[in-house]
From TrEMBL:
Residues 320-428 form the UDP-glucose/GDP-mannose dehydrogenase C-terminal domain. It comes from the Bacteria. It comes from Desulfocicer vacuolatum DSM 3385. SUPFAM superfamilies: 6-phosphogluconate dehydrogenase C-terminal domain-like (SSF48179), NAD(P)-binding Rossmann-fold domains (SSF51735), UDP-glucose/GDP-mannose dehydrogenase C-terminal domain (SSF52413). SMART domains: UDPG_MGDP_dh_C (SM00984). It catalyses: UDP-alpha-D-glucose + 2 NAD(+) + H2O = UDP-alpha-D-glucuronate + 2 NADH + 3 H(+). This is UDP-glucose 6-dehydrogenase. Keywords: NAD, Oxidoreductase. NCBIfam families: NDP-sugDHase. The active site is at 266 (nucleophile). NAD(+) binds at residues 30, 35, 86, 121, 158, 269, 334. GO terms for biological process: polysaccharide biosynthetic process; UDP-glucuronate biosynthetic process. Substrate binds at residues 155-158, 210, 255-259, 263, 327.
Amino acid sequence: MNITIVGTGYVGLVSGACFSEMGSTVTCVDVDEQKIENLKKGILPIYEPGLENLVIENHKEGLLRFTTSLESAAQECDVFFIAVGTPPDEDGSADLQYVLQVARNIGRVINSYTVIVDKSTVPVGTADKVKKVVQESLDKRGSDLEFDVVSNPEFLKEGAAVNDFLSPDRIIVGCDSPRAIKLMKRLYAPFSRNRDKLITMKVRDAEMTKYAVNSMLATKISFMNEMATICERLGVDVENVRKGIGSDQRIGYSFIYPGCGYGGSCFPKDVNALIRTSRDMGVEPHVLASVARRNSLQKEVLGNKIKERFGNDLCGKIFCIWGLSFKPGTDDMREAPAIVLINELVAAGATVHAYDPVAMTQAVGEFSPSFFQENRLRLFKTPYDALVDTDALVLVTEWKTFRQPAFQAMAKVMRQQILFDGRNLYDPGEVQEHGFEYHGIGRNFGGNLSGA
Ligand code: UDX
């Protein structure tokens, strides 16, 4: 099949590469000329495991093309995917201007029956708006071409997006037209070989499903973070509680890891957007509002623990931060807990030494230039260099490379042997055996819990 994907951001590029991998001919369109030129040369705008290879190979084979011209892409196109950004407005609702602009342009260039798919995460009712603007464009041309609008939300996790796309749990297709459903079934057939993964529903139901999934997952995390806070006060180890509840199949082990808060481009944005939508509908979203509030508080937890241990004035103290991206496997810094923590530490007078396996370039833009000019924030090439002369290590993002550090060697170069484990990555007993003082999230374990 011939597909056009508008927007070569995270979602668009992964979708394009994966559809071409499954045999479709894909044209990726973007207004950013530099980005398109780079993609033709195999230079990707984002880091995502496995993606570069797919892009380069399928581009070489002619299955994946890049262009800035929507018009040329529209020749012989069966399905258009809209995969442009929906940044949050000031009030938290999703800004649809890019989606609608693309829809308008699609209406100007289509030349046969077309299915237009919303892949971007968009509020309930967006498909109707897309339909309206496409129709307006066609009317202006005096065209009576037929088209359908489909909602097909993505469920890609950064760092695992290629695999998530190629082997999805399910494919949600929201569509009110049998003709379009038939086409979507054909398009996704290669992804459903073992079992039929396509779940069809009305357009608005699909749009809501996306928000409900992300809100549910965010709720699990915030719930667990609240449990951790309560456990800490009760002298209970949340890690045992996590294992205990995860074994209940109705709850499951995923997304119940307590930590220093969720970040990224989806959870914070989507929870806030649903809160906004809900209030617009006259429904006070009590649960969602608490999920968002707990997460804001959770991002402050590490800073608070550090101040409890060292005092509010951190002048003269140096902290080593391991992990800057919002989660492992990505260079994405959006809404990363490390941002809140580093700003907090620097504001309290501390100096920060930081290391991340891939996000350091991205990180530079997230902080005030004065942090770097005044050496309040220094980025290091290795995790061990970042530790030299520091008063504590703070683990913020649980990259695999941090799982089994050389504690003995670390202890020798640090000023004080103190560890704040923002992801409960380490075994507190083992860390203590190496002479470190351990502070986790909601942890109470045999022996000392210093500072608690
Ligand atoms: C998420 C959804 O999983 C995906 O389906 C959707 O399309 C986009 O949003 P992503 O943002 O890439 O994906 O990351 P995810 O792996 O879901 O993690 C989100 C955040 O939650 C991270 O900050 C992570 O550290 C945090 N998290 C996750 C926890 O704190 N505890 C957990 O148990 C799981």
